Amino acid sequence: MNGHATAYLADAFIHAFLRFSAGRLLADERKADAGEIGRAGETYRRIRMESAFGKLQVLVTDGHLPYPFGHELTGYEVKRLAETLDKAKAAGARLLFGPYDAGDRDTAILQFPGGYIAEVHDVIDPAIKYLNKDSAMPNRMPHFRESEKWPDQ
Fold first, then answer.
1. Fewer CB atoms < 10 Å away: N or C end of the chain?
2. Are 12 and 56 within one domain?
């Protein structure tokens, strides 16, 4: 699920949500790539939390988001984004944004028949994504060669 917050309210919201939900903070990126929200070349604050209620991503911005950002009602994590987009388009959904490589995940925004707008994303293991950077088949374990170095080496 995605949520939007202003910088003024973000810390108070995070504290209150984590306390209420007995959740945990997964990430607080103060300089996340704003290309993920249609503002290429800029940064924004991206917060990820998890609780018994599920996963929550909070986008902290100045509120000036280009369409369709801010119009999506929720976000969905899927196993394979490309397959999900193909199925959604075959069912009449329209791709409004993406797919966009957001580092640890690929994301897109769809509008379904009737006007419902949702963000969909898949989570990609950074090691697999690094090894597949030139591959047309993301999210698949490549044949590993011992001569290849991992990103942090």
1. C
2. yes
CA dist., res. 131 & res. 143, Å (int): 9
Q: To 10 degrees, the CA torsion angle through 5, 71, 96, 123?
A: 40
Q: Are residues 84 and 124 in the same domain?
A: yes
What are the tens digits of pLDDT across the range 76-101?
A: 999 999 999 999 999 999 999 999 99
| DSSP secondary structure code for residue 62 in this structure | -
Give me the count of residues in the chain: 153
| Domain extent for 126 | 76-141
More reliable by pLDDT, 137 or 103: 103
Whether the Cβ atoms of residue 102 and residue 33 lie closer than 8 Å to each other: yes
Output the six-digit token pair for 146.
């011992």
Helices within 22-153 (DSSP H only):
81-90, 126-131
* Cβ–Cβ under 8 Å, residues 102 and 115: no
Return d(Cα 27, Cα 136) in angstroms, integer. Answer: 29
